[in-house]
Amino acid sequence: MVLQLHHVPGRLRVRLARLKGHARAIVPLHSELLAIAGVNSASINIHSGSVTIFYDRAAFATEALWSVLRRLGYIDAEPQSAAAPPRAAGAPGSAATEAIAEAVAGEVMKHVLGRSAGALIRMIA
Known about the structure:
GO terms for molecular function: metal ion binding. The chain is of the alpha+beta class. It has three helices and four strands. Strand 1 and strand 2 form a beta hairpin.
């Protein structure tokens, strides 16, 4: 679960509940983050569960970050509604549902990241 997201172009910080207090996670997570195209550097604080990424705006895709965090188990593969029971892997429609969830999550992140940058510009101006 992502607890907090802060973004300015070239720098992205997320706080991950599952990272907090897990010292052994630093090395594998750091190397995975640096392997993402466009990532220049990454800083991890296990005491707060914070990950800060400095990236090249022309080469970085947030989808790659979310994919790595999902694969490593820091964020859920897809959001689950409290009313919806978890699906079994390979259940009918699961691939389609996963694709839809991925597309929706991508659009939400574009909207959130765009709004935070816009708010920052309005504050500065």
